Amino acid sequence: VIFGEARQGGGLQQQAAMQQAKAAQQLQDDIEVPTVEEVGDADEAAVDESGVEAKDIELVMSQASCSRAKAVTALKENDGDLVNAIMSLTT
Fold this sequence. Notes:
Layout: H1 12-30, H2 36-43, H3 54-64, H4 68-77, H5 82-90
Helix pairs in contact: 3-4, 3-5, 4-5
C-alpha cells in the first residue's frame, strides 16, 4: 500500500516549461513592433482616384489586405484590371 500523491518527472517538466515561457517572454520584449501610426503615415498621402471605381478599390483592398493608396496605385498600374492589381499586391 502506497500513500501520497502521484507525481511524474519530479517537477522537471514544469521547471522546463517555466524556463521556456520566460525565454519566450524575453525574446518578445526585445522585438520592436512598429505601431500603426508609424506605418500608416507614409501610405496615407492623398491619391488621385479618378478613372478608378470605388467598388474596385474596395475589392482590391479587401482581397490584398492593403491600404487605399496602394489599391489605387495597383489598379492604375494595371489599367483597372482587378485580377492583376490583386496579384501585384500579393506576390
